Amino acid sequence: MALACRWKSITLPMADSPDHRDDAGYGAGTLGVRGAEARTPWREHSPAIFATSSFCFTSAEQAAEIFAEREAGYVYSRFSNPTVEAFEKRLAAMEGAEAGIGTASGMSAILTLCMALLSKGDHVVASRTLFGSTISLFDGILSRFGLHFSYVDPCDLDAWRNAVTSRTRMLFVESPSNPLCEIVDIPAVAQIARDADARLVVDNCFLTPVFQQPMALGAHLVMHSATKYLDGQGRCVGGAIVGDAETVAGTLFRFMRTCGPSMSPFNAWTFLKGLETLQVRMEGHEARARQVAEALDGHPQVRHVYYPGLSSHPQHTLAQRQQRGFGGIVSFDLADQATAWRFINRLQLASITANLGDTRTTVTHPASTTHMRIGPEARARAGIGDGLVRLAIGLEDAADLVDDIRAALKA
Fold first, then answer.
1. For the segment 174-184, what is each residue's pLDDT rounded down to a tens digit?
2. How many distinct structural domains can be found in the chain?
3. pTM, whole model, 2 decimals?
4. Which of 47, 59, 182, 265 is the most exposed place for a label (fewest CB within 10 A)?
């Protein structure tokens, strides 16, 4: 049997390898458990960790052939490792993509996309409600190297069209957005990108391939912070990009090979195990988030709830059309920062941390944490007020979460 490598197939004596199985047509749950399986001769049931920095060759001649890419083979774990590749292939299968690449973090995935695909003078149109660190990367670092960025209302298609210039090479969106859960019309924005001969990149962190497959909606590339739901238990940091083979296994891989923002084998193994439970966890997060959102909606101290699963959400119908679920993030406005901080401090069943996607519910105040560095004017344009609270609903009992939230609001 063959163990797939980055470039071609390595012939190895695999034991009971299911390489004959065509994974096409299976659902996200099945692919998360069984996708891209390849057992070693030791017939392990759980994926193995290849915790090695480098790989050996049978001869000097073979080393030369593999380094010249005339023969397939693993060389160095900065850019080729069987455990990392297993994660890449499984996530790509779940997203309906041809190829995937693992990175050291979600931010390094965005950096890889921009550095590998853009050149000096190129222009990017992005939604104005991006994660704060993404905006800091764009405006504070990449702009120094001659890249230009414009920000638009993610729900205003005319704004997307009007922002495109002859130098636009990429459109970048989060859908749902962080932290207001705004929904982007992905097929429509994808068409705008195609008309401009640009790529549409979608951050699919909040929904994962369980609830949304952006490539099926027209996106060119999809990225993840694997740190979040793909792991699911707050253990490891990592990122990923999936898309067509020419771009991902070609252009992005060459950047990875040279620059090295690579995923470690141990983290890749952790994410592989996370993918096995991704579907049941996402369904559990969503079921509890719906109950929390409904409990918050109409509460006298809550000014507004941001959750796409509520019929009051302005893009609820769009979310129903292009998603299979609404996710586990619930944000809401309280009167001011002092009220928000008092609420956060009184919660008993929420960890105060900016991370999300864990089995444990987490809570944060975006204006003073995740979006603090973009400044008050940018926060105001994005609709992130001082009273905004973001809850990432975990897997505790929904009734306990609702009781805890109500008690904190009452106190």
1. 999 999 999 99
2. 2
3. 0.92
4. 59
